[in-house]
From TrEMBL:
Listed name of the protein: TF-B3 domain-containing protein
Gene3D superfamilies tied to this protein: DNA-binding pseudobarrel domain (2.40.330.10)
Top-rank taxon, per record: Eukaryota
UniProt GO cellular component terms: nucleus
Length: 169
């Protein structure tokens, strides 16, 4: 359901890693609400059960410049306080595989919307998960990330010295 009370039936699914997604019905919802890449929004679960009700609470376009980035790989993440304590942020597996992140680099540049940059390390753990490591906690604190904040990371430069742009708060 959107903020105007309009609703769309949709199928909810779950990937093997536990990540939930909206399947059939998503395209109609996205088009009706004129959602574009760079828009941020949040769903609030207001009814549980076999037919849960999710309400979209807000949307803003955090990307105000050209839409050239639509070809650039990106992912959304939710900040957890535990990632600050453990000094890491895990990349989605499909993002890592499609963009060959780990084989080409051990460091990455993160740039916020204000243009300030931080160097962070990139590493793989024993189970094969790739994450931002040393430097991530400094970046998160400097950008005021709090538990539950949703943000987008866009890969703006590939290769041995990759760079990602942060869109959030």
């Amino acid at each position: 359901m959107d903020e105007e009370g309009r609703s769309w039936p949709a199928n909810l699914g779950q990937k093997n890693d536990g990540q939930a997604y909206i399947g059939q019905g998503w395209t109609a919802f996205r088009n009706a609400n004129k959602l574009k890449p760079g828009d941020s929004f949040m769903f609030e679960l207001t009814k549980k059960g076999k037919k849960p009700l999710l309400i979209m609470r807000w949307k803003t376009n955090t990307k105000t410049k050209s839409e050239r980035w639509t070809d650039a790989p990106f992912f959304y993440a939710m900040f957890r306080a535990s990632s600050l304590e453990s000094y890491w942020l895990k990349f989605p597996r499909d993002f890592v595989n499609k963009n060959d992140i780990i084989s080409k680099c051990s460091k990455m540049i993160l740039t916020n919307e204000g243009g300030r940059s931080w160097t962070v390390s990139v590493g793989r753990n024993n189970s094969g998960e790739v994450s931002l490591r040393s430097g991530w906690n400094v970046f998160a604190q400097a950008n005021g990330l709090k538990e539950g904040d949703v943000f987008m990371l866009e890969l703006i430069k590939k290769g041995k010295s990759p760079a990602m742009k942060f869109y959030g708060n």
